[in-house]
């Protein structure tokens, strides 16, 4: 199985690959990182947390945000805290959010599309986190410096 780094490097070497990779980065890499890492940490994925730490670094996400996510500390802004709280609620309650939880999410400036994007992110992370648990996927060499264990 190819590692994330191998796929990234191969894509970057192709004609126009760097530009294609840049287009894959969302407009708000911080919010994407909050969703991914919140789920990775909640699922205790010792492969995905380091890998997404490296991805966040490539996307130029503030390292303080990445460390807060890895260590289950408060988010640096109220809006990101609401995003994290909502993501955790979707995971823990299997999508059965209360009316108050949904209203708090919308009041923070998010919409239905972003709520559905959390669910999309969760579906991706369930597959990768669970497969990595069962396969006992070793951390790629490039991400070893970001090794992680849940506190």
TrEMBL record:
> What is the top-level taxon of the source organism?
Bacteria
Q: Does the keyword Oxidoreductase apply?
A: yes
Q: Which InterPro entries match?
A: AhpD-like
MF GO annotations: peroxidase activity
- Print the keywords alphabetically: Oxidoreductase, Peroxidase, Plasmid
Q: Does the keyword Phosphoprotein apply?
A: no
Q: Lineage, please?
A: Bacteria, Pseudomonadati, Thermodesulfobacteriota, Desulfuromonadia, Geobacterales
Q: What is this protein called?
A: Alkylhydroperoxidase (AhpD family core domain protein)
